[in-house]
Specification:
It is a single chain. Helices cover 94% and strands 0% of the residues. By secondary structure, the chain is an all-alpha fold. The radius of gyration is 16 Å and the shape is rod-shaped. Pfam families: PSI_8 (PF00796). This is Photosystem I reaction center subunit VIII.
Length: 36
């Protein structure tokens, strides 16, 4: 019962979390480039 429910919860979580992590890494890269 857990296996079919897991992707239903995991896919939207990754869909929201992945762009957030990408934005954070991009912001840190811009900030680091600005310091240099």
């Amino acid at each position: 019962m857990i296996i079919p429910n897991l992707p239903s919860f995991f896919v939207p979580l990754v869909g929201l979390l992945l762009p957030a992590i990408t934005m954070v890494i991009f912001h840190l890269y811009i900030q680091n480039d600005d310091i240099f």
